Amino acid sequence: MSKGFAENRTDVTMSELVAEPRPKPAVPMKPLGISSNLLGYIGIDTIIEQMRKKTMKTGFDFNIMVVGQSGLGKSTLINTLFKSQVSRKSASWNREEKIPKTVEIKAIGHVIEEGGVKMKLTVIDTPGFGDQINNENCWEPIEKYINEQYEKFLKEEVNIARKKRIPDTRVHCCLYFISPTGHSLRPLDLEFMKHLSKVVNIVPIIAKADTMTLEEKMEFKQRVRKELEVNGIEFYPQKEFDEDLEDKTENDKIRQESMPFAVVGSDKEYQVNGKRVLGRKTPWGIIEVENLTHCEFALLRDFVIRTHLQDLKEVTHNIHYETYRARRLNDNGGLPRHLLHQISPPSRAWKNKARRR
Amino acid sequence: MDKEYVGFAALPSQLHRKSVKKGFDFTLMVAGESGLGKSTLINSLFLTDLYKDRLIPDASARLSQTLTIERRGVEIEEEGIKVKLTLVDTPGFGDAVDNGDCWMPVVRFIEEQFEQYLRDESGLNRKNIQDSRVHCCLYFISPFGRGLRPLDVAFLRAVHEKVNIVPVIGKADALTPKETQILKQKIREQLEEQEINIYQFPDCDSDEDEDFKKQDAEMKESIPFAVIGSSTVVRDGATRPVRGRLYPWGAAEVENPYHCDFLNLRRMLVQTHLQDLKEVTHDLLYEGYRARCLQSLARPGARERASRSKLSRQSATEIPLPMLPLADTEKLIREKDEELRRMQEMLEKMQAQMQQSQGEQSDVL
């Protein structure tokens, strides 16, 4: 019974406040190593079932941000990922889609449920990014938003009378949409990822990948990977956070072969070989979203939702949030005594330091 | 009664023969963000590989790149008719993070060509005027956007009174037919809203046949053209090689009218409206430029009139025209080159004729 749960990691979640290392993927049936002299079955392994029950009751938060030029299919992809109408476009009545003059941050929350597990999903959209003639510093509102969420969490954490479960609005995953030019990354892509890969988990994806043939896709992906490496940009899953050999080999394969995922999104269904599939219908064929020979949407979905969802949250909490927290507290000259439970706003010097990074 | 035949109905074919001998000059500019399939489309349109040795810079190189203007020339001959095609490319357009005024080099380039022509026209030796004016600008719009982006609008407004604009949606295989329709509609609305004058196809004469009229109407309906370009062949079995892009779910064919508007674009650009584009450039756009230019110099109106009367006596450089960065010697060299080429051709023809007649003489003897 417990082995089954261990394999399906999305069911195994931990409460928000506990900063523990990730559970090892496989729970051994037989006790190993030092404590090998158990005389009979104690029942320790039922902890997993208990955690699962707790999670099902409390549910969990997941905040995903989408960044990219308008028209790259961000909203459609999110809807496809979570198989429901959760994007900003679906929420607003006005489908007119005017390009805003500055980057706006729009967060829409939904509660979706599957198998008794409730997820409070927040999709943060960033309309206006990269759409102007002059896109200098258009990532700043985004960086500001992300830091604000860390700040909110920090304030709650530092409180004397803390809430039992701090609402987690921190951005766990940022999907960055790369335009499928087939040439290379654009300067704006580089700038964004340089500034933000140290602040949030960035998962780069190639949008609207149905414009590229297989060879073009391979070449483009290789070029993008190389460019990211040359520029020192660490996208998620970051090499430095691989915990053990198993993680490393799994993540290495993803990092060096599959990423960035070349995806196609769609909310329309068509009949192919007697099955109803999500896809796009063109005069020369139907592109099936979940067909691995057509695009890598299924890989992205499995990656973000089925295997690395918890890891995304953990890296956000243990690494990115801690980095923010350390900087903030350093800025204030050490841990504030519980006398001042209102933290002063981040000083300008720290902000400039962060920006120059 | 048919002896009363004067014979000037043969004029069109005389003109035809003369222009065939002279050949055609055509300058085509392609503009738009990088990665929209411009080079591939040009290669497909003219069945050449003009971009063989191109190196695509990566993002960090492009961070500091400014827009450059590149000119490539190619001579295409088909059925005895020679076209000297000059392609003007604008690499770096829209690539930077800050693209403010990135269209200025393009505007300046177009105006420089007008300036050059104006000087040539007002000069003494008008025999070999090189027409380097841009006759048509294919502007590539991204299929991924929701219509024209702010940068597109800014560029088009800067150049629409100076060059014939033909808007084109690149990489149209990213769109389903319905999406294509919606995008075209949106672009047409935006062009109207922003009062951008794109190249207007002339209405066909009422005496053209129904088929032609229908074709013409279809072509007008499909602007902006949604095109796919490719230099790879996808289906070898057919009588002619079919160019297209091969995907796991099917093959998008470049010359299939149900797949994209490539045929319409090619027909328009090369087969039916080549001459009209040149005429509109000369009669409308160039004249507009010339009028503006001379008017701005004629503020003291007497000066202009006086200088025009002195034309026959003074050399070209004394006409009050804005100074060109182009040196006079360069221009002379180009003219001489042109003359040399023509003389060489004539020489070759004469030699061939002489050889032929010598052969005949020896036969007779």
UniProtKB/TrEMBL annotation, chain A:
Belongs to the TRAFAC class TrmE-Era-EngA-EngB-Septin-like GTPase superfamily. Septin GTPase family. The gene is SEPT3. PROSITE patterns: G_SEPTIN (PS51719). It comes from the Eukaryota. Filament-forming cytoskeletal GTPase. May play a role in cytokinesis. Its main location: cytoplasm. The lineage of its organism: Eukaryota, Metazoa, Chordata, Craniata, Vertebrata. CDD domains: CDC_Septin. The keyword Cytoplasm applies. This is Neuronal-specific septin-3. Septins polymerize into heterooligomeric protein complexes that form filaments, and can associate with cellular membranes, actin filaments and microtubules. GTPase activity is required for filament formation. Keywords: Cytoplasm, GTP-binding, Nucleotide-binding. Residues 58-331 form the Septin-type G domain. The keyword 4Fe-4S does not apply. GO terms for cellular component: cytoplasm. GO terms for molecular function: GTP binding. It is found in: Cytoplasm.
Automatic annotation (TrEMBL), chain B:
Keywords: Cell cycle, Cell division, Coiled coil, Cytoplasm, Cytoskeleton, GTP-binding, Nucleotide-binding, Phosphoprotein. The keyword Transmembrane helix does not apply. Residues 22-296 form the Septin-type G domain. The record marks 144 as: Important for dimerization. It is found in: Cytoplasm, Cytoskeleton, Microtubule organizing center, Centrosome; Midbody. InterPro entries: G_SEPTIN_dom (IPR030379), P-loop_NTPase (IPR027417), Septin (IPR016491). One of its GO terms (biological process) is meiotic metaphase chromosome alignment. Residues 326-360 form a coiled coil. Its main location: cytoplasm. GO terms for cellular component: centrosome; meiotic spindle; midbody. GO terms for molecular function: GTP binding; identical protein binding. Pfam families: Septin. Septins polymerize into heterooligomeric protein complexes that form filaments, and can associate with cellular membranes, actin filaments and microtubules. GTPase activity is required for filament formation. Interacts with AURKB. Filament-forming cytoskeletal GTPase. May play a role in cytokinesis. Belongs to the TRAFAC class TrmE-Era-EngA-EngB-Septin-like GTPase superfamily. Septin GTPase family. This is Septin.
